[in-house]
Amino acid sequence: MASYLRSWLSSQTQPSSPVSNPAEDAPVINTEDADDDADTVHGGYDGPSDDSPPAFPSLISAQRAGSSNPSSDLPRVLTDAQLMPPPPVPSRSGRTLGVPTPSAASGGSLAVPPSTNKPPASAKRLKVALAPGHGPLDWANLKRSGQDLRGVDTLLRVTPSMLKEHRTRDDAWSAFSGKVYNITPYLPYHPGGEKELMRVAGRDGSKLFASTHAWVNLDYMLDACLIGFLVPE
Ligand code: HEM
């Protein structure tokens, strides 16, 4: 095989006419190796048999021509450095990387921001286990059932003193943002528990509600329990 390639290479490097005749260039098959190469399919890779890399830049490349012979007609290939000056080295002095942390001991800029890595502030907002059949869907079903959850025939104008009269578990009214609701039917459905909700019975609960869970859509949840509107005495 090696001798075959040697003969093939020598035939390639010999000076030949610009338009070579494939028949003339055909390799001479060495009969010595004919047995070894009987099964070999020729016509694939024709380069050197060792592992040396090919010449780079290519022997006929414009880059090589430009560097060895500057007076050549071929265009000179500029290096990256010649085409464009390197960017200035960035200064770190004016930069703040990541989230600034109060102390170096907190783990650097990839540490969780201090506002979110603390445990919850208090156990104030703990959910309670609701009795079976008293989940949010059960409450939605009760509202839809058409059952009277108001306890009044018409919407009322409620003064603070009227509100104060309805502060027992079986008859609890509370005002939120100017609207008065009968909260008694909702007590067993309240995820925060009856006790918490009873804290606002008979009075304006807007502030406590907002400080506990302002995101809860109270108007929608208690629409079927609307008594009326809070008015001055
Ligand atoms: C009638 C008005 C109210 C309605 C409709 C209501 C509704 C809800 C709802 C839907 C939740 C679950 C919230 C969630 O999963 O994110 C909840 C939880 C809770 N509510 Fe209320 N609530 C009311 C009034 C109040 C009031 C006045 C207090 C405080 C005195 C209170 C204290 C709590 C607590 C402690 C929780 C459990 C903790 C939590 O979910 O984060 N709620 N309430």
UniProtKB/TrEMBL annotation:
One of its GO terms (molecular function) is cytochrome-b5 reductase activity, acting on NAD(P)H. The keyword Iron applies. One of its GO terms (cellular component) is cytoplasm. Pfam families: Cyt-b5. Residues 155-231 form the Cytochrome b5 heme-binding domain. Gene3D superfamilies: Cytochrome b5-like heme/steroid binding domain. This is Cytochrome b5 heme-binding domain-containing protein. It comes from Ceriporiopsis subvermispora (strain B) (White-rot fungus).
